[in-house]
Each structure stands twice: as C-alpha cells, then as structure tokens.
Amino acid sequence: MARPRIKDVARHAGVSEKTVSNVINDYAHVSDRTRRVVREAIEELGYRVNLAGRHLRKGRTGIIALVVPELDIPYFAELARHVVREAEKCSLTVLIHQSGADRAHELAALAGFGSTFVDGIILSPLALTADDLRGRAGAPPTVLLGELLEEGADHVAIDNERAAREATGHLIALGRRTILAVGGRDDPGLGTAQARTRGYRAALAEAGIAYDPAALLPVESFRMPDGAEAVARALGAGLRPDALLCLNDQLALGALRALHEHGVRVPEDVAVIGFDDVEGGRYSVPTLSTVAPDKAAVAKVAVQLLQHRIEAARGRVVATGGGEPVVPPQAGVGPPRLGLG
User: Fold this and answer.
1) Which of 245, 248, 278, 303 has its CA 20 to 30 A from that of 180?
2) So what's the pLDDT on residue 129?
3) Residue 190 — left, alpha, or beta (φ > 0 → left; ψ -120 to 50 → alpha)?
C-alpha cells in the first residue's frame, strides 16, 4: 500500500492541502473544528510528516553531529542520551561519532566530515589546539564541550577547577591530609585533568598542606583498570594516603577495587571521591561519593546554542532589542554538585 501523502489527507478531510500544511505546522489561524478534522484524517490514514523533505526545503538536513572521545565511557554515554532528548524537542536527529581523542578525527568533525549532511556539530575535543579553531570559514556551526580552547568559540562547560577545589576541600574538612590525585596532571595544558589538578592544588594551598608531586598518580586512560593499577602501584610503593581525589568515576571505581584487594577500608581508612556522577557509582560498595555535573543542563544549553547558530548561519538570527544575538559565544551551566555516598 502506498504511503499516504498530504493531498490524501486533504481529500479525506475535505480541505485544501494548504490547510493541512497549516495544521501540521501548528499555525494559529485555523479553526478548532478544522484542526480537529485534519488531525483525525492524519490519524486514520497513518500519515507521517516527511521531515527530510521539510528540512531540505528550508536548506537544512535536520541532522546534527555529537562527537565525543569514547562512547563506552559512561559520562559520554549519559551525556549523549541527554543531547538526543534535547535535540528531539527541536525536531533534530543526532548522529553520534566517536573520535577516539584522535586529532585527525576531531579535525574531520570540525570540518563537518567533508560533507553538507550535518547542520551543526557538538564536539568534545581532547586533541585539538586553539589554532585548529581559527580560520574555519564555511565550516558548520559548532559548539564545544569541555575546557575552553579558543576565546570567542561557542563553548559549554562546568568549572572543573572550582569543582576539584571544593571536592578536595571537603576531604580536608573531614580531617584528611594525605590526599592523592588519581589521574592528576601537573603540565600547563588546558584539558579537564589539568583544570581539576589545579583545583586540587589550590585547596591544599588554602589549607596550608604542602604539595607533593608524588601525590599525583598519572594514568594512561581514564578507565577502571587504570584507576586500579595506579592505586595498587602507589600502595606497593609504600604510599599511605587517607584520601583519594579521582578525576573521574571510572578511576574511582577502579581505585575502590584496588583498596579492597589491599585490605584498605573505605571510608574508614581512605576516603574516595570521583567526578561525573555516573550510574555505576551509585551501586558500588560503598556508594561512591562524586562531583555531579548537571549533564542534562550541559546538553540543553549546547543544543539551544547550536540551534541559534544554525539559524544565524541561515540569516535567521534571534535578536534582542539592540539587534545583537541572544546567545553569547560562551555559556556556563553553573557549579557542579558534590554527591556524597
């Protein structure tokens, strides 16, 4: 059976095709009776709006790309779910791409994958530099997630330095003094790990606790085996911490395993705090204390910001009374919350 078309709905409802279109697009100047008749016809015939055709007539595809480093990292998987939900509210479809934190893949995403099939991109970069963001004439509208790489770029992030400072301060307030930073990085980079390490060091300084470079436990990646290996290595080297600041929940869950295998009690002997508030941490034993960024808010702001930029790129800028775009070039989402297990 052929798929019903708009003219079939119009014939069934006894109205013009223009009237059916007005009902579909929810135009105000349609009587309640006509709107009801058209909707009943749509339901009876099983008519579905051709979103692809609608988007193409408007000069857009209705598809945006979400590019994250690794999909099997729970934080990014949970964030992707929120982005998809927000995009659906705007009748947008999300194409999810995994970059592997590879610069070539991130550059390809930044260029729109060499095609015009996406209207815009939400990108969480790890390998790009500020120079990569310059001279992007003709590239799709892009919103960055994570640490700011370039002043003026559209960007959504939490204050990672402040969050780490407050989390470390909480450990200090509990009487902990020998605090190791699992995944800490002391180089001057602009990444999330560097920002969280700066917050950790700032909290130590505020409390008058001397910083020891040996308290940073570097990891190859931010996964559970890396957290377990880093903590086991530290304990094997004779370090005796009374707290761990883990730079994400995956590292923290791995740390809990290593502490358990070494007979160390949590939180009696060692207090542990992670980052990201992923679902798995709520089911660990003991329940993981964590810094909880508002992932839903990050997704909402990112999609709204991208939607405005897509409209602006097509000459449909939503403006204030002074004619300036409503959306600023950068957007924060407020401080993260400390969730205690």
Assistant:
1) 278
2) 80
3) alpha
Nearest CA-CA partner of 170 in 133, 200, 196: 200
Is the link from the previous residue into 286 a cis peptide, with omega within 30 of 0? yes
Whether pLDDT at 267 is above 90: yes
Alpha carbons 271 and 279: distance in angstroms, whole number = 20
Residue 323 gets the label, from left (phi > 0), alpha (psi -120 to 50) or beta, of left
- β-strand 155-157 against 142-145: which pairing, if any? parallel
Rounded distance between C-alpha atoms, residue 104 and residue 111, angstroms: 11
Q: Is pLDDT above 60 for 38?
A: yes
What's the pLDDT score for residue 322? Answer: 34
Is the confidence at residue 104, as pLDDT, over 50? yes
Residue 324 and residue 322: Cα distance in Å, rounded? 6
Q: Do β-strands 337-339 and 179-182 pair in parallel, antiparallel, or remain unpaired?
A: unpaired
Structure tokens at 91: 């009748």
Q: What is the pTM of this model?
A: 0.77
Beta-bridge partner residues of 62: none
Query: Contact, 209 vs 178, CB < 8 A?
Result: no
**What is the pLDDT at residue 8?**
87
Q: How far apart are the first and last CA of the chain?
A: 57
pLDDT of residue 328: 44
Asked, as a colleague might, if the bond just before 141 is cis with ω within 30 of 0, I would say no
